[in-house]
Amino acid sequence: MEEQVAKSCGENSSTSILFGTEAMTLPTQYAIPNTRSAHQVQSYLHVKARAGREALIVGGFTLYLHMGEPASGVSLVLPIRPNAPLTAPILERIEHIFAKRGHVVCFQLLDSFAPAMIQTLESAGYGVQATEPVLVCEPGEVLRLQNDKLDFVTISADSPLEDVAENWNINARGFDPNATLAQPADVAEFRRSLKKSRAFTARLDNVGVSAGMYTDIHDGVTELVGIATLEEYRRRGFGGALTAFATSTTFDDGASLVFLVAASEEAGRVYQRVGFRPVGNLVLLTKKLKDQRGTQS
């Protein structure tokens, strides 16, 4: 938990989406039958995908097309319904739109939302390029981890800039110890973004050690992202305590479902000790393209 174990996928995470030469094997540890929570998470993925993208509906799918240069962002295709038909004409239309813009076709979905769709896409030549465990928590499920050594600070759009900067820097350095510290303009912009979301800092003896945040709440659903602990303070339960505090706060603020995308299956198991439960895997599938020699890549 104290390592960089949660991240957001699809929005502001294009650097983590790698289109390699081999498709990854889809694990089944977290794959479970379709649930109400899976529908809620998939709906929230649509909310995230809208940011900075143009939306276009083709059949039972929404195309979220990055509006900058193709190399500067990722365009996504998300199913609207679990049983949305993916016929040859619909798939050809989607691929034509992406090709015209020079974008790589990237389907994003929760496997427990539409497991059959993954098989259909693989049969059509798509490969699984990333799969990450998704876990959820509802009111009454989160376990408050007692840690009398920590103080928690909730960061909002009204917080002092020094508190915002501290949170930003802990998060950045928690993922990359060599990260550049926040610039004043970054801090001001981040604070403005916290009108409907909240960030959290855990302090030990008045020193910030862990940070994270929840995103805007939509239809009672929010995502917990960016949980990170400074390297020298890991494996002491600080990240778990912060996660429990942040999750409880989201429920106090009106959320009815909190989800997170874990960086690994091991991290997912750690989150379960806080009260989260697996709901599926976030899967990214891309088209297997032919290289100049005619082999699949």
Per-chain topology:
Blueprint: H1 36-49, E1 53-58, E2 61-66, E3 76-79, H2 88-101, E4 106-110, H3 115-123, E5 126-137, E6 150-155, H4 161-175, H5 184-192, E7 198-204, E8 207-214, E9 221-229, H6 238-252, E10 257-261, H7 265-272, E11 277-287
3D architecture notes:
There is one protein chain. α4 crosses α5. The chain has seven helices and eleven strands. The protein is globular, with a radius of gyration of 20 Å. The protein is 28% helix and 27% strand. It is an alpha+beta fold. The protein has an eight-stranded mixed beta sheet with strand order 4-11-5-10-9-8-7-6, with helices on both faces. It has a three-stranded antiparallel beta sheet with strand order 1-2-3, sandwiched between helices.
Sheet having the most strands: 8 strands, mixed
How far the N terminus sits from the C terminus, by CA atoms, comes to 35 Å
Strands of the widest sheet, in order across it, are: 4-11-5-10-9-8-7-6
Helical content (DSSP H or I, runs of 4+) = 25-40%
CATH fold call of the largest domain: Aminopeptidase
Percent of residues in β-strands? 25-35%
Number of strands: 11
CATH class of the largest domain, please?
Alpha Beta
Task: Please give the count of helices.
Answer: 7
Give helix and strand order, one letter per element, not per position: HEEEHEHEEHHEEEHEHE
CATH architecture of the largest domain: 3-Layer(aba) Sandwich
Query: How many domains, as an integer?
Result: 2
> Low-confidence segments, ≥5 residues, pLDDT <50?
1-33, 289-297
**Which outline best applies?**
globular
Q: Which class best fits the helix and strand makeup?
A: alpha+beta
Fourth CATH level, the homologous superfamily of the largest domain: Gcn5-related N-acetyltransferase (GNAT)
Task: Compute the average pLDDT.
Answer: 85
CA-atom Rg in angstroms: 20 Å
